[in-house]
Amino acid sequence: MGTGQKGNARRGGRRKRCRVWPYYESLRRGVSRKRLIRVIRAGPAHHEVAQAASLCSERFDGTTISRPPRNHLPMHDPKLDAVIKMLRSRPVPTNADLAFFRANFDQLMAEVRHNQAIAHKAATAGGVPGEWIGPSTAPPLRTLLYLHGGAYVIGSVAGYRELVLRMATACSARAFAVDYRLAPEFPFPAAVDDAVAAYRGLLAAGRDPRHMAIVGDSAGGGLALATLVALRDAGDPLPAAGVMLSPWIDLECRGESMVTKAAVDPMVLRDPLLEMASLYLGGADPRTPLASPLYADLAGLPPLLIQVGTSEMLLDDSTRIVARAQEAKVDARLSIYDEMIHVWHFFPLLDATKRAMAEIGDFVRERTYSAPRSQ
Question: Which of 46, 156, 218, 335 is catalytic?
């Protein structure tokens, strides 16, 4: 066989082994192999995976291309309709004050909670109150520092116990959920100071940063990123990873999706969000990097996973911060879940919630260690 024939045979063999269709090849040429592996692992709800599946009904499992069963393809989850209906049945009065938002949020957390009896242990870390939450079977060293959402003015660890437990279980970890101080009683930078102090307290108690990840949702996602920046600036050892769910990282709310997604987002309202930002800032510049991490120097941060839904007004917060992180040479992964709403992770029966939790678990476990540190 001639040289040309051998080359054709090799190429033919590769096509037969991977069964790559020509139009999938055109998609692959525009996306690196490493990037394909990362986005496919996010699950079929990821927008790039959905696009690939609609083109060729195949998936990439990291080594080969194989045709999935029909039910593997992205489909609308009817359970999401029920969630959105429930959320839209809770209208916000035009004259709503902070007391209303706090009570409304606590009531919502109670309504969406499936497990009413979650084991937890009150504790402090670095003088900051919080709770230890996690499965009893978790490795003793892998630790999550969890920062809850609530626009820096509402929310508490008590309302987040179920979400934190599911997160810790997915990561095979124990989580310390921080009850950081809220504005307006304690404006910026109180929340950042508490998160940094709690992290340092965990390290002082013997936790190894190589076994740790900082996780947060919504405002807690922005706070998680601000905490990483503050720790880096202070020269503290950084955790192995950071995870942000639907993060709020621009307190000016200038993203285009604040307008384009307003009609489909049942969770976030721009005007109340800006009012809460003002309460948190207490007169500080909204572009202060530790308040709005969109304006922070992100160089040197650990690997980041950011999850967001296509029906979120905060969608552009995620896309912009990942672009900034990648410009700073940070290993930042963006997972966009089709049709999902702000912090859909609250609702465990959604198919996308299960995929998102699995992705988070894989991400954290791959970047942390569960074995004792060698002497």
Answer: 218
The three-class DSSP label of residue 338 is coil
Annotation marks residue 278 as catalytic? no
Strand stretches in the chain, DSSP E: 59-60, 65-66, 121-125, 128-133, 143-147, 174-178, 212-217, 241-245, 304-309, 332-337
| Catalytic residue (one of 162, 342, 345, 359) | 342
Say which of 48, 131, 162, 312 is annotated catalytic.
Answer: 312
Phi, psi of 199 (to 5 degrees): -60, -45
| 321 backbone dihedrals φ, ψ, rounded to 5° | -70, -35
Tokens of residue 179, six digits: 């009850």
Domains of the chain: 3-72 (no CATH), 78-367 (3.40.50.1820)
For the question of residue 46 being annotated catalytic, the response is no
The letter for the amino acid at 218 is S
Per-residue pLDDT of the chain (375 residues), as tens digits, is 444 444 444 444 443 333 333 333 333 334 444 444 444 444 434 443 333 333 222 222 222 222 233 333 457 999 999 999 999 988 777 777 888 888 888 888 877 766 656 889 999 999 999 999 998 777 778 999 999 999 999 999 999 999 999 999 999 999 999 999 999 999 999 999 999 999 999 999 999 999 999 999 999 999 999 999 999 999 999 999 999 999 999 999 999 999 999 999 999 999 999 999 999 999 999 999 999 999 999 999 999 999 999 999 999 999 999 999 999 999 999 999 999 999 999 999 999 999 999 999 999 999 997 544 443
Please name the amino acid found at residue 266: P
Asked if the peptide bond before residue 189 counts as cis, ω within 30 degrees of 0, the response is: yes
370 is catalytic: no
